[in-house]
Amino acid sequence: MDGIEKLKKIIDESDNIVFFGGAGVSTESGIPDFRSVDGLYNQKYDYPPETILSHTFYRRKPEEFYRFYRDKMLCLTAKPNAAHIKLAQWEKEGKLKAVITQNIDGLHQAAGSKKVLELHGSVLRNYCEDCGKFFTAEHILHSEGVPCCDECGGSIKPDVVLYEEGLDSQVMAEAMDYIRNAEVLIIGGTSLAVYPAAGMIDGYKGKKLVLINKTPTMRDNVADFIIQGSIGEVLKLL
What we know:
The chain contains ten helices and nine strands. The chain has a domain at 1-31 and 79-120 and 167-238: 3-Layer(aba) Sandwich (Rossmann fold). By secondary structure, it is an alpha/beta fold. The protein has helices at residues 3-12, 24-27, 49-52, 55-60, 62-73, 82-92, 107-111, 137-142, 169-181, 231-236, and strands at residues 17-21, 96-101, 116-118, 121-128, 134-135, 156-160, 184-188, 208-213, 225-228. The two termini are 14 Å apart. Strand 4 (121-128) and strand 5 form a beta hairpin.
């Protein structure tokens, strides 16, 4: 039985699947990741991306932060790809219990997924730091300089987890609960190099840990089943 057929059998026989995804899920929708040859880490800026996307930099140089953020982080024309669509289909069929994602683009919800746990937040949510008023990603994209609240004049901050900021404890706890109770845990489009998110999979105690990624991951040695390839292409075959 080849890899796809074996994976199809695992999926067909389970109604308790949890999916844990990273940047590779969104690159097929045209959203750049951080570590590939064409990713953000290889772009030329006055500061490296991990510096710009830090809490300290956001506070000290908000204009520079927003220049980079609008240019590289707001990919608002991106559409869900085969991976997003297949996961939404599985949820609708009662097979998939939750999507846990490190991505901040909202494409899982755009594809129809309902239970999406966003470990690193979302570019689609933005709030005034003073009064809490909500603003859309389009508002941020079309604003200039540091976007300010039209109610109180306060600075608007994206609801994304920057470097030096902690993950939302409630979201993490819920994600851990789904991982702990999953029969099948599928990890796709991530090298499992970003912590603390990557460490969450240690909570999985089942016997069907599936890794799907274009390159080897940090946890290949603990996987029960590995397919090396594009997450979108693999899920489309199912």
